[in-house]
Amino acid sequence: MGIIVDAVSEVTSIDSKSIEPPQTIVNGVNAQYLTGVGKHDDRLIILLNLEAIVGFDQEPGKNN
Questions:
Q1: CA distance 41 to 39
Q2: CA 49/CA 33 separation, integer angstroms
Q3: How far, in Å, CA of 23 to CA of 41, rounded?
Q4: 20: Cβ–Cβ under 8 A, 6 or more apart, which residues?
Q5: What are phi and psi of 55, to 5 degrees?
C-alpha cells in the first residue's frame, strides 16, 4: 500500500522521549487519528496514526 501526497517539505527524526500522547482533540482532529505530538527544535509535529486513518484497525467487514 502507498499513500500519495502533494508535497514533502522535510524529513526528520524525532527522539521518542520528545513524543507525548495526543490530547483528546488537536486542532479539530479526533485523537484516534493521532499517535502523538513530537517536539523538535522549537516546533510541534503531529504524528498521524496511519492504521486508524486507512482503517486497518477495524475488523474486516465492519464499518464505523
A1: 7
A2: 5
A3: 21
A4: 36, 37, 38, 39
A5: 90, 15
C-alpha cell at 22: 495526543
* Cα–Cα distance, 22 to 35 (Å, whole number): 7
Query: Left, alpha or beta for 8 (phi > 0: left; psi -120 to 50: alpha)?
Result: beta
Taking only the tens of pLDDT, the chain with its 64 residues reads 778 889 998 888 888 898 988 876 656 667 888 888 888 888 888 888 888 888 865 555 555 5
Non-local CB neighbours of 17 within 8 Å, separated by 6+ positions: none
